[in-house]
Design brief:
mainly beta; globular; Cathepsin D, subunit A, domain 1; 49% strand; 149 residues
Length: 149
Amino acid sequence: MTLDYKKPSIVVTAPSAYQYHGVGDVLPLSFNGRWPYVRGVLKVPGVDPVTDDFLIDTASEDAVNHPVIRQSKGPLRETNTGAGGVGQSLRGVVGPNEWSRIGSTTIPATKSACCAGNDDVNRQLGSAILSHFRIMFNYPARQIILEKN
């Protein structure tokens, strides 16, 4: 399945017909149940970068969320998190990320929120990050391919 935020479009290709010949980052795709995850790195103010597996949430408008934001030395504001998504709405925080990295792409200065009522979604990539890419999900090979837009 190919998701292109720029067009916008979704293209589904039969696994037997799919071959990738581009220059994007081909990364391992892991699963927790039916939810897909990809490895990434997040840097918040005053804390060493954190490498973790992030839920790929194409329906979320968020950037990159992670519990490390609670340790940030940057400005934080209280909020209700998890509203409208998976989990229950809880008191949490929102604050700045210095940068995040997926594959070879580093994206500067986004926001992070923490935490939803479900630990499976506390580490999440939303469309504010994913829209930087044309994304190919190669589920049989357990790969995600990210081409910079």
